[in-house]
């Protein structure tokens, strides 16, 4: 296997909805893959409640067995999951409880940070080293995707809580992720299954950068891009493949950490293109770690080959691939 192909594998971030490694994921990790996202199924995502059989069968021992196996196969790796207030907490009853949205608003900031730290310390004990949280979005209008899934409805309050969440996670010795940049105050549909737009100008979007900036200043190690289509850029494309929005993140918000896409096979991102095209576009745009859903796991090899081919054909600079892999290294452990 070429060194370029191993680098290509390292930028892929497959989702598994089960606490297990399929044969495809084992192969992925032995070929150079170094990141696994432990996700939830559609109903769990929608309700924020884990299935009863998951709660029954997943134990600290089963989590540690899987995360240790990932590291045995891949060496240092990114092992990530959601730990959201008002949305999905993938580790359900296996960590110190997250506060509810209402409890969060009533807490002193130090108490909130301590509660987040306790949860993150328990996650670390299970082998997790990256939380795909907090949600830094603020809903300001029609939003079938994120309504009731954010920490607050006020920009200043979400900014305060995002920074406090990041500080609490850092105290526990693992990494946090701000999502879903550049913010989705209004969305016309569900990006996973529809061509959903954020129909705002860049000037109208700018106030919603504030929670991301607060989290970045607090030390967030990663930022997760939106899968919605942003009319603020030309041509209008998904946030996950927008070089303009990633440039804003890097230049205006001074973010130097790991840039993660949303699921690249979401309808708003992939559109009518092939996924092997879109993974290359995401890297070309400046993303580092490329999320693909469980449905794409059987095709991880083909996606890695597409990235290698793009480098060979000089459509993707080798330096861009190396930079992405180095960003992943800084979070993996």
Automatic annotation (TrEMBL):
Residue span, Glycoside hydrolase family 3 N-terminal domain: 77-328
Pfam families reported for this sequence: Glyco_hydro_3 (PF00933)
Keywords, in A-Z order: Glycosidase, Hydrolase
Superkingdom of the source species: Bacteria
Entry keyword annotation includes Cell wall biogenesis/degradation: no
This protein's record includes keyword Hydrolase: yes
Gene3D superfamilies in alphabetical order: Glycoside hydrolase, family 3, N-terminal domain
InterPro entries the record matches: GH, Glyco_hydro_3_N, Glyco_hydro_3_N_sf, NagZ_Beta-hexosaminidase
GO MF annotations in UniProt: beta-N-acetylhexosaminidase activity
Gene Ontology biological process terms, A to Z: carbohydrate metabolic process; peptidoglycan turnover
Transmembrane segments: none
Reactions catalysed according to its record: Hydrolysis of terminal non-reducing N-acetyl-D-hexosamine residues in N-acetyl-beta-D-hexosaminides
Entry EC number(s): 3.2.1.52
Similarity comment: Belongs to the glycosyl hydrolase 3 family.
Name listed for the protein in its UniProt record: beta-N-acetylhexosaminidase
